[in-house]
Amino acid sequence: MSIEIRNIRKQFGDFAALKDVSFKVETGELVALLGPSGSGKTTLLRIIAGIEAPDGDDGAILIHSEDATAINFRDRRVGFVFQHYALFRHMTIFENVAFGLRVRPRRLRPSETTIRAKVKELLKLVQLDWLGDHYPSQLSGGQRQRIALARALAVEPSVLLLDEPFGSLDAKVRKELRRWLRRFHDELKITSVFVTHDQEEALEVADRVVLMNEGRVEQMGTPDEVYHHPANAFVYNFLGNVNLFHSRVEEGKVYLGDMPFDLPSEAADDAKTALVFVRPHLLEIELQPNGSDHFRAKVEHINAAGPVVKVDLITDWGDPVHVELPHERYRALGLKRDDGVFVIPKERKVFTDHSKPIQN
Amino acid sequence: MGFTLLYLSLIVLIPLGAAFLKTFTMTWSQFWGTVTGPRALASYRLSLGASLIGAAINTVMGLMVAWVLVRYTFPGKRILDALVDLPFALPTAVAGITLTAMFAPNGWVGRSLEPLGIKVAFTELGVVVALTFIGLPFVVRTVEPILQDLDPEIEEAAATLGATRWQSWRRVIFPELMPGLLTGFALAFARAVGEYGSVVFISGNMPMRTEITPFLIVTKLAQFDYAGATALAVAMLVMSFVLLLFINLLQWWSQSRYA
Amino acid sequence: MEAIGIRIGETRIAANSALTEVRPVRFVLIAGTVLSLGLFLVLPLVVVFVEAFKKGVEFYFAAISEPDAAAAIRLTLLAAGIAVPLNLIFGVAAAWAISKFRFSGKNLLVTLIDLPFSISPVISGLIYVLLFGLQGWLGPWLAAHDIKIIFAVPGIVLATIFVTFPFVARELIPIMQSQGSEEEEAARVLGASGWQTFRRVTLPNIKWGLLYGVILCNARAMGEFGAVSVVSGHIRGMTNTIPLHAEILYNEYNSAGAFAMASILTVLTVITLVVKTLIERKSEIRGGRGADAVSATE
Q1: DSSP state of B223
Q2: Which of C170, C225, C61, B162 lies closest to A108, judged by CA?
Q3: Which residues in chain B have Cβ-Cβ distances shorter than 8 Å to A84?
Q4: How many angstroms separate the CA atoms of A151 and A91, rounded?
Q5: A259 with A293: CB under 8 angstroms?
Q6: ipTM value of the model?
Q7: Nearest-CA distance from A357 to chain C in Å?
Q8: Which of C1, C10, C294 faces A71 most closely, judged by CB atoms?
Q9: C48 chain-B contacts, CB cut-off 8 A
Q10: How far apart are alpha carbons C292 and C280 in whole angstroms?
Q11: How confident is the model at residue B146, as a pLDDT?
């Protein structure tokens, strides 16, 4: 069941939550809507579900090529998992999961035995089959989330939507559930869209990522594509750690401090300033300049507790720089606080297009 | 308040009443005779019965009013919302004469009901109307905050799972409101049982028919029958205690089931 | 399923959206609410004033200024004038003790405070008669010293104090409990005395709740009927408050006169409601209740 989002706009009073969004989710895909708060991703998800309606007449949501915007919930067959689970607290877990089946119109309603079997099967699927008689208040956050998922799946939706599914959970539980969701999706293959503000989550779990900012789609692609080939400054800054330098442009060169660097060919001719992005692991530290383009910096803080060594430095023009080094390199350099070193950017991305403000 | 009355009756009032009775050296049989006399029995039936009916009406009406005030907008809503506290703030005697003026046979509302054969003032129906009036704020003000705090997501969840609005309401929303409704009912009932000023004008106070127990107590006092008045007061407290105990049990049951 | 769009503002919602009641149901509920509230709340207010002025404006003013009426007004003001300040002090003290300190019997105290509020006003009055009446516990002693309480002004004042003493406390206790005692503790640590702490830290925090409690207390004090009726002797010009005087006039079929007296109390009630609304607005602005969620379903 593919989902096609066409020209969706949504305004709340003065605030434009969505400004003409269009893209397509292929059948069986797991897509992440990724972006900062206020980017419109949850609003878009709710419009796909039918909880909100888009503005105007030209916007449409097509599920399996049929216009879903004018179809009611029962016939739309979309499963929705809420950020805070929205489990019915006065019902047992069993009753929660059975809910969608029990409210079906009489002629479509399965028998009680069928319902019981189906619920058991679903609880087994989410690996919580012993919790049937418990109440939501007795479950942990992670368990509640899985029950919310089971409940949504009970009505056999053609599309599954998840709103920040792991937002309210501890870091460790989140990581476990992420992997679980990926395996789960691989098994069931239901077209799914989930909303998150956690870029690590999106890149790890999704087949494709849709990056949203201020109501617009900035880029859509596989995690690999968006990370290594970001379309613009926003995407680059949002995904992964990055150092950002506001630099000036003079005579075809961009200056980091006093050091000139080459401008990429796509740079605008009349640009006076540029944004330079460098990933922390693509910066090298040397004790002596070795001929490559470099700038000077002083070591402020070293954190060696982790898989890489994280070094915070201050450049000689006052900007902070964050560098990640392998442990062997760090030991070879023998770095200490207040050391003066030379930093070499191995790879950098320069953007002269400032039309989109950067959110740090 | 219902629970309070329960607790107080047990700890303070009933022993107090017993102490007073001892002062007047009323024997058990005298006590029993006063408390179960035909006039007294008729007054209990009216006081308790009309209070229960009034509280029940308020539970339904109050739910509707609370729902409309919280969920919808319409011109004049703010004023009506502020006015809900009127029966609570208005002096009981003022309520009493006003309700009578409204529902007497030639009254503002009564004159339209007369030709239909419906008599309100000076009948049991009038007592119910008065007790409904004074109980109005209790259910509304108890349910309103619950409705305001209701998580919209559970309604959305029910809808996405395919429930019709009625199904959502019955299976998801109403159970959340149930404990609040019971509490409101208990409060309205407790207030109604002891009510005096709002009722004695519209009831007509006819013995055996439209005489409420508090009025009977006042009558006995006017006759300087202190013992009789005290006996009736004790009986009234015991009955309220039993009924409120029952309501509290219902509340406890609904809390465990629905919360 | 045929979709019939309902336009609400600029958005489009499919029929059977299942997120809100359908139009006819909403209409019926709103109509039902407006009718019942109109009947039970708006109409009585209208009736009071129309009936009060039925015989004309001159009659109205004559009715509220004739000697027995004036005496009733004076007695009402006296009773309220004593009861309200006393209960204000008691209420603040009790709320202070209950919310800032731990002590055994706290629950009992809270429940006792609610006592006059929970029992029938008639029984409240009865308790006083049984204590101070001629046949009561203290009756013989009072008679011997020629002190009249029941069927005299002191009894009325006492009964008024009794039935209104919960109001200020009940308003303040939840407010003070939710505020906790951290601010007061901070003040004490900084060297403020008990009284200074109260005046500069506690009082400003509770001022709106206090105001509302006082207004409610006053409204009840001036409007109390049942309890006062029992202890009063219904002696015209001497032991009648405004409500009692209204009752007498009503029983004499002087309806306009009775409503004239009632209208005085009704104005007080309206003021009470206005103050309550204003106070609620203020606490809403300070971030009490959140703004309504933006929703396309209303």
Answers
A1: T
A2: B162
A3: 151, 153
A4: 12
A5: yes
A6: 0.85
A7: 27
A8: C1
A9: 94, 98
A10: 16
A11: 93
- B173 interfaces chain A, CB cutoff of 8 Å: no
Chain A, chain C: beta-carbon pairs less than 8 Å apart: 41
Given a contact cutoff of 8 angstroms between Cβ atoms, the answer to whether C29 and B62 are in contact is no
Contact B167 A103 (CB under 8 A): yes
Chain C nearest-CA residue for B233 = C123
| Chain A hits for B176, Cβ within 8 Å | 90
Listing DSSP states for C10-51 in one string gives TEEE-TT-SSS--HHHHHHHHHHHHHHHIIIIIHHHHHHHHH
Find all residues with CB under 8 Å of A169, minimum gap 6, and list them: A141, A142, A145, A177
Instruction: Give the other-Cβ count within 10 Å of C176's Cβ.
Output: 23
Residue C9 clears pLDDT 50, i.e. is over it: no
Q: Is A114 exposed, middle or buried (0-12, 13-18, 19+ CB in 10 A)?
A: exposed
What three-state secondary structure class fits C85? Answer: helix
The reported pTM is: 0.84
Per-residue b or e along B57-79, where b marks 16 or more CB atoms closer than 10 Å to that residue's CB: bbbebbbbbbbbbbbbeeeebee
Average pLDDT over chain C reads 81
* Residue A132 CB contacts under 8 Å (≥ 6 apart), including other chains: A92, A93, A94, A119, A120, A123
For residue B10, CA distances in Å to A334, B17, B43, C117 come to 81, 11, 23, 16
Task: Nearest by CB to C13, from A12, A53, A74: name it.
Answer: A53
Give the C-alpha separation, A346 to C72, whole Å: 95
Contact B160 A78 (CB under 8 A): yes
* Per-residue pLDDT tens over the stretch A114-160: 999 999 999 998 889 898 899 999 999 889 999 999 999 999 898 99
CA distance B61 to B81: 14
- Do C159 and C228 form a contact (C-beta atoms < 8 A)? yes
The first and second tokens of residue C116, run together, are: 């006059």
C298 in contact with A, Cβ within 8 Å: no
Contacts of A56 (CB under 8 A, 6+ apart): A9, C10
Instruction: Say if residue B129 is exposed, middle or buried (CB neighbours under 10 Å; 0-12, 13-18, 19+).
Output: buried
The answer to whether A73 contacts B259, with C-beta atoms less than 8 Å apart, is: no
Residues of B in contact with C111 (CB under 8 A): 4, 7-8, 11
Task: Find residues 145-184 of chain B whose CB sits inside 8 Å of chain C.
Answer: 148, 152, 155-156, 158-159, 163-165, 168
Sequence-separated (6 or more) residues with CB below 8 Å from residue B130: B54, B95, B96, B99, B195, B198, B199, B202, B203
Going residue by residue through chain A, which has 360 residues, state the pLDDT in tens, using 9 for 90 and above: 889 998 899 988 888 889 989 999 999 999 999 999 888 999 999 999 888 888 887 888 888 888 877 777 777 889 999 999 999 999 999 999 999 999 998 888 899 999 999 999 999 988 898 988 999 999 998 899 999 999 999 998 989 999 998 888 888 888 888 888 898 899 888 999 999 988 889 999 999 999 999 999 999 999 999 988 888 888 888 888 888 888 888 777 788 777 777 777 666 667 777 888 888 888 888 888 877 778 888 999 999 898 999 999 998 888 889 999 999 998 888 888 888 888 888 888 877 765 544 443
Query: Which of B68, B197, B224 is nearest residue C30 as measured by Cβ atoms?
Result: B68
Instruction: Work out the average pLDDT over C170-180.
Output: 83
Evaluate whether A335 touches A302 at the Cβ level (below 8 Å): yes
C-alpha angle B41-B42-B43 in degrees, rounded to nearest 5: 90
Q: Say yes or no for a CB contact (<8 Å) between C14 and A13.
A: no
